[in-house]
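mind reviewing this stuff:

——
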Amino acid sequence: MALAVGSVIVPVASADPGGLGASYSGETVETPSIPASTTETEIPAVSSPSGVPIPAPTVPGAAATLAGERAVAPASAPAAVKQVIAAANRIRATPYIWGGGHARWWDKGYDCSGSVSYALHGGKLLEAPLVSGSFMTWGEAGPGRWITIYANRQHVFMTVAGLRWDTGGDPPGVTGPRWHTEPFLGQGFIVRHPVGL
């Protein structure tokens, strides 16, 4: 099924009923506020063979850096920020899939709001995925010290400790969740941040 929006055809995807339990039909539909099962909401952690979590490396200061395609959290960042970065790193090379990340946390690909939701969920800042328009009223108004969300009804991205987390084609032709050092120059976004960050 597809919807015609202006002269653009937008496919309509449905969520897997075994996931979060809601149909996803575009960036203007709300998803449930409480996940249906904890199995679908768990994000895989990195552990040593003994089962003890492996601490992620950090860099000195208050700004994250890139090591290849992975972000390295600043040592001075709060634990939630480090967890957001670690979660984003886990999906940082997945493809862009419209509706991806809305039926379940661990998915084969993510759209913009699915990837931002996944990373925030990793930091225990979000219980269920949101669509782009929902981020326009999420958290608190204005830029945050550590995390800033930029949202409108069609797109959402965020900066985390100075790096941009976005699904845009940068470099050209590459889409899907990626870290970027360059700021996004688009306009028309509402600026929000997680409470306390």
About this structure: The domain at 2-37+64-193 is CATH 3.90.1720.10 (endopeptidase fold (from Nostoc punctiforme)). The CA atoms of residues 58 and 75 lie 5 Å apart.
